[in-house]
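Question thread 4412

I'm putting together a teaching handout and wanted feedback from people who do this every day. The idea is simple: show students a protein as raw sequence, then show them the structure tokens that encode its fold, then repeat with a second protein so they can compare. Below is the first pair exactly as I plan to print it.
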Amino acid sequence: MQEVEYERMYEAEQVSWWFRARRRILSDVIGRLSLPSDTQIVDIGCGTGGNLPMLEAYGEVTGVEYSPTGAQFARTRTESQVVEGSATDTSLEDGTFDLATMLDVLEHLEDDQAGLDEVYRVLKPGGHFVFTVPAFMMLWSAHDEALHHHRRYRRPELNKKLAEAGFVVDWISYYNTSLFPPVAAIRLARKLIGGGEASADGVEVPPKPINAILEGLFAVERHVVGRLRLPFGVSLIGVARKG
């Protein structure tokens, strides 16, 4: 990720519709898991730490972030431990965590299979893995380039990679489905006629009324994500377990 994006993300994470709605969906997904009372959680690739306070509602949290800039921002949000480390080599002990999260992280890894192997290693047997990634290469845009993405995913591809790492997949679904048509139209139009700066979508906060409408449209999916398998969306979300 470009360094300037960390500051922009830090400023937007508390107000932007995309981050706020995603946290509401993730909180609902995690709240439905069977987690022990003393749950140990690791957020690998925690970025500027916007998800750490949400995760703290479910247990003791450790954040892992490769960028010193991102880790520094994250520490201002939380009293949880934030360590600097690679998503493919966290230096954490084997079999330590009941829940691991990688929230829009896998796409940043040149070797995403190594990242999945690392998650599997640090989880306890039966531990849960909650993940999100961007979907469909047809949506590739300046947003992906600004964030140094290597790929966007389809559900069968991600399911196969998880199985190869040893995970038992509980479910994977597309989400951000209601906003897929306008997002796809805008990004495809930009490919055809140009336009759009090399910057990340979601960190430019729209006027409050529009921001609230977009958050509501996205967040309402928390009622169906994990219960129904949505057929398409801007992103993928899922839960797997260490066998």
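The second pair follows. I'd like the answer to focus on this one:
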Amino acid sequence: MTAILLALGAAITYGAADFLGGLATRRLNALSVVLISQVVGLAIVGAVLPFTEADDPSQGLVWGAGAGVAGAIGVILLYRGLARGRMSIIAPITAVEAAAVPVIFALITRERPGTAALVGIGLALVAVTLISSSASEPGQDEETVAGDRAAASGLMEAFGAGVSFGVFFILLDNTGDSSGVWPLVGTKVTSVAIVALLLVVKRMPARPDRS
């Protein structure tokens, strides 16, 4: 029961992050938004770190660093998708893909999720298919066609982000209970480094304007 409540809390927090990130990427470039979000996240993890215990921080850091690569790719794709497409479409597609990938991985590795979990994932995938199907039909007016194109914008980023987040969860699952919050340190440090490097390579400003 505790795990379910924690998962629901995480889902609510991710939903809030999608909403705020979507608003921010309408005004700023996605890389700047990702960098700021990851730096703030690293600061929060750093503040919590002294109050936690860990028997094997090294294992958590290694797996966390790998997860940080997948997480950074996922956040960049998600925020690019939110900047281009509709939040009401991009966010749920990403969320369902992120949930489906670990379940599929569990099936491949001979772990058997419950029947309810499998049915839920199946229904969710059907829902994603219905949400993302926005092909224009003959005879539609220009306004409807424009709306369909707007709905389709960012879909590839949404699917890519969902897969990346799924890999992120799979890698974090390998850290073990003895790692404490050190895996999160690894993920945030790696994410910040990757995004900062991309900003330097693209010669884009990391600091947003005052608005």
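Top answer:
Good format. For the second protein you could add a caption like this: The chain is about 75% helix and 0% strand. The helical segments are 2-25, 30-48, 57-84, 87-108, 115-132, 142-152, 155-173, 182-202.
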